[in-house]
User: What shape does this take?
Amino acid sequence: MRLALQHTKGLVEAGCDEAGRGCLAGPVVAAAVILPPGIRLPGLNDSKQLTELQRDKLRPLIEKGAIAWCVAQATVEEIDRINILNASFLAMHRAIEGLRSTPDLLLIDGNRFTPYFGIAHHCVIQGDGKFRSIAAASVLAKTHRDDLMRTLHTEQPSFNWAVNKGYPTLAHRRAIAMQGPTAHHRLSFTLLPEEV
Assistant: This one.
């Protein structure tokens, strides 16, 4: 399916998406991206539909070709304090704030968002598979978060974050059961369901 260039003709739009909401460990990472109309990004799609290699090839093209882009995060401590949904919005707000150009409209992946002061927004369910700017944001959020989890893996290799990226795999949960949670685990999440 071809991704749409724009939601509203004549407006400068920034796509926003996050990565890591369903993880047991690590921050939630968000990206905001403003793309020029003529940019060529072969194979651009929702990051979940792409392979790691495809995402890694797209990332420098997006970062070089975008009018503006920013990646930001909300920490594990913030996730535990304000919950993952609000932490996701906080990370998006930080990414929007970091853009070197101010957009006229924010295209948000999902069905909910806390308004960002001074900029209108439009929520798009499965927007990362519908609009190029949101898809680009999803690629940046995912690749930057994966890099971060690979770095954390070097500190705590027994949790295998280089592979599972903090998601609730059986092996990840077994490691938590054997060693206990680390400072990078989200204590407000159910780390160990009864069946593990």
Remarks:
- Residues 13-144 form a domain with the Nucleotidyltransferase; domain 5 fold (CATH 3.30.420.10).
- The helical segments are 52-65, 76-82, 84-97, 132-155, 161-164, 170-179.
